[in-house]
Amino acid sequence: FSALDAFTRSTLQDEVSLIASKQDLTMVIVTHDIDEAAAMADRVLIMSANPGHIVGEVRINLPYPRVRSSEAFSREREALMKTFDGLVGDNFVAPLEKEESTEKSKQEAA
After folding, report:
1. 88 and 46 in contact (C-beta within 8 Å)?
2. Residue 44, by phi and psi: left (phi above 0), alpha (psi -120 to 50) or beta?
3. Percent of the chain, pLDDT > 90?
């Protein structure tokens, strides 16, 4: 959903989640967006950077549709973010940063 404007993205996330919940469907969604994970998932698996390994799990215990402006949603999102930071946090290197770091190391070695 990342290529959509914020309003459309949020609406589609809510609709897809509600349909999956009502139909008792299982979905696997890969995202880099903490808000999207909190809005759409019942269970979030957190992966480490390269190589990717599952390093944690968070259960989101909220009914659908989820109200993003609610205190309950904010608490769940914050718990997810704290878990992510604790497990991956400083060890996370975005792909672009990793390439820049590798290039800088090569230049320093030369």
Report:
1. yes
2. beta
3. 38
* Cα–Cα dist 1/29, whole Å: 11
Q: Is the pLDDT of residue 75 over 50?
A: yes
Residue 94 is encoded by which pair of tokens? 């975005």
Pairing of strands 54-59, 43-47: antiparallel
In SS3 terms, the chain reads as: CCCCCHHHHHHHHHHHHHHHHHCCCCCCCCCCCHHHHHHHCCEEEEECCCCCCEEEEEECCCCCCCCCCCHHHHHHHHHHHHHHHHHCHHHCCCHHHHHHHHHHHHHHHC
109 band by pLDDT with thresholds 50, 70 and 90: low
pLDDT in tens, 25-58: 999 999 888 999 999 999 999 988 888 889 899 9
